[in-house]
Design brief:
Elements: E1 2-6, E2 9-14, E3 17-20, H1 26-30, H2 35-45, E4 48-49, E5 66-71, H3 75-84, H4 91-99, E6 104-109, E7 114-115, E8 130-131, E9 134-140, E10 146-154, E11 156-157, H5 158-163, H6 168-172, E12 178-186, E13 196-203, E14 206-214, H7 222-229, E15 239-242, E16 260-265, E17 269-274
Parallel strand pairs: 5-15, 7-12
Antiparallel strand pairs: 1-2, 1-12, 2-3, 3-4, 5-6, 8-11, 9-10, 9-15, 10-12, 13-14, 13-16, 16-17
Helix pairs in contact: 3-4
This protein binds 2,5-dioxopentanoic acid and magnesium ion.
């Protein structure tokens, strides 16, 4: 079951059947007990509509939730961060956090900084080395229960982060630095470990970068990341927790204005954003 927030209302879709739901309040819906069963019943009752996520007026699937992110959860991310922070003496921290019991968790975004499908993402004006980070994000309700999955683009300024790990919030949190969508895949179960995360960056219509990883390379379980995040922390409207990137382009690559970033996780769809 996929749940879309659109300019025309909330749309549920399963096995090719889509319907506009009577529910108007996104946050109340996400925090309903037994959401999956409720949506199955609601979709049966709803009048079927023609719905194509590639052309529908989609909004980011977020209401009042905070967005958090995990870092250094794939070996590739550990390596890339060690390299970029070598001169600053930060490399050791990344190797340690990759192995440590406590994960790296950081605050990523408030709703107003989040871009939806086909909305623009931004690179900071004071940064020269920027990448998208294609990640699976877990969606958690106010009771701390996982009920869904979406795609997160954790836009990152590598030169700022690499200059000093203490600059991480500036490298990660700025206007339009996070994209979510295209929908929430409603399921308590994580997509299968063989599921691929794919990214394609188009520049002037041509591939400037392409990469792929699979969920079986994620070192930590989403359940354990969610449990760490909820230690002494409450989320009255629920939250999104992005699980980290396993794809980092070569150091010679930086995003440019006009690039189109397309991230695909098959059971969820494709999140596509142009760089402003
Ligand atoms: O440690 C810095 C950020 C890590 C991150 O965002 C990732 O691994 O995805
Ligand atoms: Mg990341």
């Amino acid at each position: 079951m996929r749940l879309y927030r659109t300019k025309k209302g909330i749309v549920a879709e399963e096995a090719g059947r889509a319907g506009l739901l009577k529910d108007k309040d996104w946050d109340a819906l996400l925090n309903r007990d037994g959401l999956g069963a409720y949506l199955t019943k609601s979709l049966k009752k709803a009048k079927p509509i023609a719905f194509n996520p590639d052309s529908a007026p989609l909004l980011a699937p977020i209401g009042r939730q905070e967005v958090w992110a995990a870092g250094v959860t794939y070996y590739r991310s550990r390596d890339a961060r060690m390299d970029e922070s070598k001169a600053a003496g930060g490399g050791d921290f990344y190797a340690r956090v990759y192995e440590a019991d406590r994960p790296e968790l950081f605050f990523k975004s408030t709703p107003h900084r989040v871009s939806g499908p086909r909305q623009k993402v931004r690179i900071r004006k004071d940064s020269k080395w920027n990448v998208p980070e294609p990640e699976l994000a877990v969606v958690v309700n106010s009771a701390g229960r996982i009920f869904g999955w979406t795609i997160c683009n954790d836009m990152s300024s590598r030169d700022i982060e690499g200059e000093n790990p203490l600059y991480l919030p500036q490298a990660k949190v700025y206007d339009q630095s996070c994209a979510l969508g295209p929908c929430i895949l409603v399921s308590e179960e994580m997509p299968s470990p063989t599921t691929e995360i794919r990214i394609e960056i188009l520049r002037g219509g041509r591939a400037a970068f392409a990469g792929a990883t699979a969920l079986d390379r994620l070192k930590r379980s989403p359940e354990s990341l969610v449990a760490w995040l909820h230690r002494d922390n409450s989320f009255p409207s629920g939250c999104f927790l992005s699980t980290g990137t396993g794809i980092v382009p070569a150091d010679s690559f930086t995003l440019q204005s006009g690039d189109e970033v397309r991230i695909t996780i098959p059971p969820i769809g494709t999140l596509s954003n142009q760089v402003a």
